[in-house]
Amino acid sequence: ETVFATPQIPRAPFEGAPICTTAAGDAAAAAGPLKKITFAWNAGAPCLVGVTVAKEKGFFAKHGLDVELTNYSGSTDQLLETLATGKADAAAGMALRWLKPMEQGFDVKIVASTHGGCLRLLAPTASNIKNLKDLKGKIIAVSDMNSPGKNFFAIRLKKVGLDPEKDVEFKQFPGPLLRVSVEKGEAHALADNDPLTFLFQKDGAFREISSNLDGEYASRVCCIIGVRGSLIRDDKPTAAAIARALIEASEYAAHHPEEAAATYAPYGPGKVELADLVTLAKYHSHHHHPVGADLKKELALYAEELKLVSIFKPSTDPAKFAERIYADVLS
Amino acid sequence: MSLISIEAASAGAAPTRGLPSRETLTRAALAIAAGAAWIAFAFVTRHWPDAGEWGRGEELAQAAAGFGAALFLAGLLGGLWPRGAERLRRYTPWLLALGLFFILWQATTAKLALLPQPFFPPPHALVEVFVDDWPKLWESVVASLKLELLGFLAGAGAGFVVGVSLGWSRAFGYWVHPAMRLIGPMPSIAWLPIAFFAFPSSYSASIFLIGLTTGFPVAVLTWSGVASVNSAYYDVARTLGASRAFLIFKVAIPAALPHVFVGLFMGLGASFAVLVTAEMMGVKAGLGFYLQWAQGWAAYANMYAALLVMSLMCSGLITLLFRLRDRLLSWQKAEVQW
Amino acid sequence: MSLISIEAASAGAAPTRGLPSRETLTRAALAIAAGAAWIAFAFVTRHWPDAGEWGRGEELAQAAAGFGAALFLAGLLGGLWPRGAERLRRYTPWLLALGLFFILWQATTAKLALLPQPFFPPPHALVEVFVDDWPKLWESVVASLKLELLGFLAGAGAGFVVGVSLGWSRAFGYWVHPAMRLIGPMPSIAWLPIAFFAFPSSYSASIFLIGLTTGFPVAVLTWSGVASVNSAYYDVARTLGASRAFLIFKVAIPAALPHVFVGLFMGLGASFAVLVTAEMMGVKAGLGFYLQWAQGWAAYANMYAALLVMSLMCSGLITLLFRLRDRLLSWQKAEVQW
Amino acid sequence: MVSLAHDIAREPGVEISVHEVSHRFDLEGAPLPVLDRVSFTARRGEFVALLGPSGCGKSTLLRLVAGLEPPTEGVVAADGARIDGPDPSRVVVFQDPTLFPWRNVRDNVALGLEAQGLLKQRGARIDETLRLVGLENFAKALPHQLSGGMAQRVALARALVNDPDLLILDEPLGKLDSLTRLSMQGEIVNLWRRAGFTALLVTHDIEEALLMATRVIVFSERPASIKADIAIDKPYPRHRDDPDLVERRREILGLLGLDASW
Amino acid sequence: MVSLAHDIAREPGVEISVHEVSHRFDLEGAPLPVLDRVSFTARRGEFVALLGPSGCGKSTLLRLVAGLEPPTEGVVAADGARIDGPDPSRVVVFQDPTLFPWRNVRDNVALGLEAQGLLKQRGARIDETLRLVGLENFAKALPHQLSGGMAQRVALARALVNDPDLLILDEPLGKLDSLTRLSMQGEIVNLWRRAGFTALLVTHDIEEALLMATRVIVFSERPASIKADIAIDKPYPRHRDDPDLVERRREILGLLGLDASW
Ligand SMILES: Nc1ncnc2c1ncn2[C@@H]1O[C@H](COP(=O)(O)OP(=O)(O)OP(=O)(O)O)[C@@H](O)[C@H]1O
Ligand SMILES: Nc1ncnc2c1ncn2[C@@H]1O[C@H](COP(=O)(O)OP(=O)(O)OP(=O)(O)O)[C@@H](O)[C@H]1O
Ligand SMILES: [Mg+2]
Ligand SMILES: [Mg+2]
Predict the structure, then answer these.
(1) C89 contacts in B (CB within 8 Å)?
(2) Full-prediction pTM beyond 0.90?
(3) Does residue E143 have a cis peptide bond before it, meaning omega lies within 30 degrees of 0?
């Protein structure tokens, strides 16, 4: 047991908060011993409250799973490597981060999704950038050249008629320094994901120009659940149990954002304000967690759009791609 | 050392004896000044209101005031315990400088907010991290130390053997040297995917990464050490009937040890730098991990705290290494300094 | 070297003279075998269908076949140009091994798909990267080289001066040594925010990062070099009326140069490792940048290609450094090997 | 010859034959000839002293005999077998002491026995030999704590402690004062007479050569060639005022270019 | 006294006084007394030879006089001023040549002039001095390409090329053959007579001391104390068979424990 994986220091406002008096709690005892599962995630992403809810509120247990959370920092494609090499059984990550590497052919299948939202494009409030079109000829700071933020807003720019390769320039800066790079004049706007973008705009000096909850994207998934290919082949029920637990947990989070945020709090580093977590939990669309054909369709749409901005190879067929990477474990 | 001792010898040639004067007065003045600086720091921390919200200012102020008072007293009463005062004397300039630096730091961050936030947290924000987050930090230290030591020992051992073999066998060199030239300079991150596959667990992969980074400088320097042994030593040993093994173990290796230690020193430093990479792989605690995790939230106070611990740890290990060297190589003057 | 040359001397003590026999036959056989391996590799690449889709198999097969044929011919006709054959002889074992390795690599990846994809791309996937993506790669090489050289030179210069000063002045050591102990082992990533603020542009911050990484080993080893100079040299120079400057520039520094070069070598290696970090800051091209980008896309062929270029570049720079050293230190046997 | 020599291997001493040996070094790209067709044979049990001007090639010749380097031309043989490498039966006292700085005096002296795995068997000889060179009180001292003459005596002890067939001495007593030198000379001669090994001694002291050797070879300037080969068949202990030796001395001084009155 | 000495600073030579000097080293934690209340004065322009057993403390005494180390007790003074550091007016030829391996022979010899900024002014003396020691053909050679005796001659040249007031020689000719040695002895004496510096010479060769010095000091075993202080007021050039010198020699041999018949 480690301090990181288990909340040992309950935060003051929740002292004595019943950990298991939940929707799932009573139904917990599924027959037989719990199956041990290693679940990889990036604990720095507060949009993954679904995962902590599933663990702390007993959704995993309810589905017969004993889940160990393993934190992977750094760029999230290492999660794919972990899954593909069998070092973890399942993992959560952002669709726009994973799809491109998955085009290369990892032995990883998508089984579910958890929520939408969490990518934002910000510009200084004082600047005259008011919408995406104003970005023409500007420099946008991103945390790396494959970041979901970069991928997503490249699509958005393309859709408003700007060429993401010619009309704007993306420049890479270390995530926490994105805002500084704009303030120092090395870029005009920045695109990244929560929590950093959320924190950047908190003091009002930066304004949100666009996000992935705008317009048609309001009903698009952000984070998806992948499992190792061999789990689908050898132990499909477990894969299904993981998917179910997380979907139920997301639904729970959508209805109880305060409690969901509280489950996540111990995983955040140092000084994270609970109010912020709650705001984020409310902001991210945890009610949106499609599966089956819906999810497959959304994945295909992403693939289509990534092709549009020449991130995907022209030869990739979006429908076939979605078919290949999605495994329907729930029906 | 030599140059410095030459300097010292000529400087100390004509010591002023007699009155308890200059020397002693400077000593006392320095201690008192250092004490005053720390008390001033405590005062600033306590009574100048913060421009933002950071915890543990109170505790810091108390500790600083206590320390300052102790220094102050030591300056006043130094005469009572000359040997202690003599010892303290070596530190007082630094203590004074540190006190002033802390005041500056405090003023430019928490008080005047001249330095941009949250990148430059004030001192009491760090204190807060140490006080409030110490279980996590402690766990990280233990985990990192374990990983580091396992990797370092494995890498140092392998590097030593490779280095000796390179200096020893032409055939080994023929096959290994080109590979080493290609592999040696590769950044550790390149090994992540391969390490993932080649090793049963991500922990062993992490150990491999650290070992590799340690092993390269150890191998290169052991090799050079063996290769640059004064050939007169070999001549002597060979005419006395030394076997190949004797030449290696009783001539080449002892003569190369100073180089080997340089390699170990370099390897230790380098391996700390990859700790961050190695701890990206599914570990549950560790300083590198903590560092990255803190950075993801722009929790800079936590990050600096972890960094401080990390560099103290590395410095401590290097000190240990140098102690070991001084013991083994007592026959020679220190080669590499620390 | 010494140990090896001892070995060589005794091995070559009784050379077999007379017939063009054993020696020559082995030489020819090795070249022919190596040629055959490469031709086989070409055959496998060309005629055994791929299990997946990778480009440039055709071109690779042609190049390999051509190279194999040349080797084959060299083996058969080696007698015509003995000096050339002699030279080739040094490489044939490696060429044979490489040929066999390529066959194995090709078979286990593209053909039998034994190694998991996409982690282990087949050789022609790498060829594809070089052929199709060379403009980007080339741009990256130029950018990285520029950044690396600027940083390295700045860091090496600063490190050298600090190292000499540490070996020279007790006061400098008092103030700088503790700081160096704390700062030296810090991972470069820790410097990102500070460098970002302290420097006017992100490019200069990147240079600073590389310089810092280079400078630390250079400083430590220069310092040790200066400190470990045989004190008899100082005695001689001092009795001949050497000033302090003379002792430093004409005794300490020349005597310390072998150490300084070890430091430069270490610094060069270390600075390549931080290229990835340094190129996170606002650069538009660079090998580290390319590497990260390829890794994010799981474009492993691109990643390995960039890595290969990077380690060739580093190895090349180290070779240059060692040439320079051999020139400057012709009076001594090579200390560190490369 | 060879097989015979091997049959009686336990008989001490060895016959060293230097046959038409020439040697060259490389100096600034130009060849520097150092030995010029040197030929002589040191018979089993002989004590041969080599005299010659500074820099003529004496140390180089000793290195060839020790097997540390092959001659550019010619053959060096031990009991008829070509020497192609060093062997513990041929022990050298080098011109510089080259003690191992990481070993104390005793361990430096123990080097040969340790290398040949005889430490247990003959370890007692170490202290004996240290006493012989007058350094029993410095057994634990490190080389850098010795005076020049003491270091040289340690190097001598390191060689003497072995049981060589050939002892090669390159100015082994150059840094010693007359008294110590005299006693060392006596000890070496006693040891040689007792053990019966063959000895090659380079020295600059003509008297030393005459007092110790059975034969003195005088070399010319660089490139060294043999100028004279003088047998000294006098019984031991010899006396420096012996008229025969005085005569020989005058002869050698002449050969070295010093007028007889010196 | 001091001020006077400074007034006539351009007059060559210096008066060295060693007053009640004792010195100790640390060996294995225990103190090793090396010099025991040694007192003597070398007058301006005197040539003092020091004789004594190996390891008695001669080199140590020379280091104290050179100002490389302070004595544990007592005072060493030059013209009445306490010596507290090395000075180019006191040049040393060390027992080991310690040439700088990264400089060729010529540049090693140039060291002193370079250090004192006199290279341009007196650079011509370098080649002159190299010729004096017979190494004009090796000016470009690196130290590791020299024989033992040649290296020693380079070290000697490195000292002689300067214009010292005091020349300290620690067995400077130990590795030379008789002929070279004889000519070097002559050269040193000539130089000394011409330039008028004060000289301190450690040697193991009693004849050398008698031929060169105006005064011979004989030391006891370690810890060294002065056993005898013998003036040799003979004109130069001296001859080894001079009955006075033969008498002195006998006397010194006796002091060193060698019977007179040696
Ligand atoms: N490694 C080397 N490279 C070039 N020249 C060398 C080398 N070693 C020796 N020599 C040269 O060879 C010559 C003979 O050297 P050697 O050491 O044999 O002389 P030596 O007779 O022992 O002299 P000494 O009595 O002064 O020791 C010298 O002129 C020396 O310069
Ligand atoms: N650095 C040192 N540490 C300990 N002991 C030392 C050191 N240097 C010299 N000694 C000791 O001091 C004594 C005198 O040494 P010194 O070199 O003065 O002798 P010396 O008279 O010059 O002898 P030699 O004629 O053999 O050169 C020796 O016993 C030696 O062991
Ligand atoms: Mg010699
Ligand atoms: Mg001495």
Answers:
(1) none
(2) no
(3) no
